[in-house]
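Its record is set out here:
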Amino acid sequence: MSDALSYEDIIDLLELEANATCGFVRITYTSKLSFGANALPPPFARSGPVGSALYFLVTPHAPVRLHRIRNDQLYHYYLGDPLELFLLHGDGSVERVVVGPDLRAGQRVQLLIPGDTFHTARLLGSGRWFFGASTEWPGVTPQDVEIGDVDRLATKYLSVAPEIRAIAASVRDALTAGGGPR
């Protein structure tokens, strides 16, 4: 089914928009239920939605920028090529996980990214595009997102420094070229 659709089709059909952290995005859900200031422990000592969800599409020209979100996130694979994620945990450990359709090869169709985990990703397979979703709790607000300092994180996570730098360079190139495939 994914071969029948192009990434341009998905962008148009689902009304995705260019995003600063992960290709193209459309927020599909923000809970009407909210929590009040100081209802949750830091860093959520603010009011906000209980949960949120979004679609996201990654292409070679609209990659995943090194970032972290304070909130726990659950990635979901829907269509396209697999996505290799690099999770940079606060304790200094690194995890490489592939989100994609090939369960026999160990790919996952869901992946939990713990809150405050810096992460970035690159396309695998034919490298055309990845289409998935993320659900978050509590719901994400702009102050929950932080862009990573590539040099600082590459120094701390030496085992994946070349990959972090390469992905950052592809993000820089995509932004220089106009920020997306359109």
User: Anything to note?
Assistant: The mean pLDDT is 92. Helices lie at 7-14, 150-156, 161-176. Residues 2-169 form a domain with the Jelly Rolls fold (CATH 2.60.120.10).
